[in-house]
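Deliverable D5.2: sample structural annotation.
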Amino acid sequence: MLLCYAPLLLNAENNDAATDTISASYRIDEVVVTGTKYDTDIRHTPLTVTTIDHEQLTENQRTNLLPTLMEQVPGLTVTSRGMMGYGVSTGSAGGMMLRGISSSAGQLVVLIDGHPQYNSIFGHGIGDSYQTLMTDQVEVIRGPASVIYGSNAMGGAINIVTKKMRKDGSETQICIGGGSYGTVQAEAANQTKKGNFSCATGLQYNRSDNHRPNMGFEQYSGHVKIGYDLSKHWSIFANADITHFNSSDPGKITAPTDEAEQHVTRGVTELALENRYAKTNGRLSVYDNFGKHRINYGYIKDKEEPQTKIFHTKDAVAGIDWYQSATLFSGNRIIGGLDYKHIYGDTHYTDRKTGKTLDIKNKQNVHANQEEIAVYLTCTQDIAQWLTIDAGIRYDYHSVTKSEWIPQAGIIFRPIITGEMKLSASKGFRNPTLREMYLYPPSNEDLKPERLWNYEISWRQHTKNKAFAYGINVFYIKGDNIIQTVNMKNINTGEIENCGAEVDATWHINKRWHINTNHSYLHMKNPVAAAPTYKGYMGVHFKGKAWNIHAGLQQVCGLYTSAAQNKEKETFTLLNAGISYQIGKHITLWADGENLLAQRYEINAGYPMPKATFMGGIMVKF
């Protein structure tokens, strides 16, 4: 559990008091929305949640969220292959592995303001579309979140909470940087609030040659969020984000490829109506997550011929999401919700020279529409000051795989004012993807959902002045019906049996120095790629009047780089550090270095990571 400096506020009336608390204390109790939909104290949810605020996300001047999440979230690993850009398709990276459960398999969902953001055909997230530009904070549920978020939240959920201006005024930030391998990053963002109207906008440009030939990356991103308070209790929001990137796959170091290029556009739009009263609040939103991909698979130099056809995909997850929470009596909170999704996917090939669509048989093309509708109910009840119980149930109906019941339950003990113990049992599930059911010869239309159960116990405590806090949790995961390819056919035959422990702590030594650390151990009966046996991180931060200095040391042990190469494991240690200096009121100079120990290592098999890299630049705020 990391400590958040700018949490969402419980209600509008608390704004001034919360601001005073932030300036007067090293730490305040975290308020999260991901596990419950409504703003709640993290101590009152049975789920294990890590929060990372905007200050932490931008400390290293990284434009993408994922490298920071790998450092700050116990048990979370992110695959990488270069200095900038994750790409898609063969040789891509940006896959997230949490407790041995993979986002690449669609078992770990990424959300933006509570709505799913993934490629509906293949089921995986798109790492290059998760930008710090639009982010206020990130909340990570470590464990199943299917009661609230349904399919794909089987192993957890990563919710990106977008920016929102909370006080009248205007803030603008421009940041430009450059460094190793021709890497350039530039972004401009503005937040404005005047009376009932608020607006957050941003533009971003990134590019890099990276450290290997044919590994170029270029990206353009934009974000806008507009809000209007219709009254004291009702607000309306419109949100849009779009990212386009061009990426090249250089192939494995032993078999370099040429012309392996991806041109990807991802976007999300949302319109939401929100109500907020003393004893009830809710939200009705309509959203669309969509993408368009154009992929040339390339060829191995001196062994293959250039591709004569190009692969195209269009996909979308559009939906309606409604929930309403209410306090019926003291210590009680009930949430009821409805979740509808329309899942669409289309793939086809075109002739590289003529651009005409090719009619290819043998399940090389797919055009599919699926529907999913669910209702859920959760209830939290304080039995006493020291005891809270929580229970939830979801009924999910899919147009192909039919119905699924998803329960969860938890108990929270608070034997002392400064600590709490949580026990929970929760079910997670994932419906098969369009690819697994319809695309390519192994596909199987009779696939059933994957399922798992997660059992967890945790203890969290802080000192009375809240300068030091720590958490310890242990978990056991048992899953079945996991989709695997056997004899060239996808079937529900796999199993998951993982267990492990996680520890995290933060110590604000004084107003200038603080330290945070986290460690995770994972044992898997059936090991998978990118899930290390041990991952640990320690960060040291100094904040002076003009100088800011930070350094982080990360250790990864026992990481398989490929599911097909489970005989060799990677172990590596990464040292990252950065410094910034504020010149006057508006200008800050910054410099960052990564892998300063110049480690040789791989996270994707056959894709060696760069040695020491450096970036520097200027930030202007006004």
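Annotation notes: Residues 1-28 have pLDDT under 50 and may be disordered. The helical segments are 15-24, 54-58, 66-72, 146-149, 434-438.
The annotation will be released with the project's public dataset once the embargo ends.
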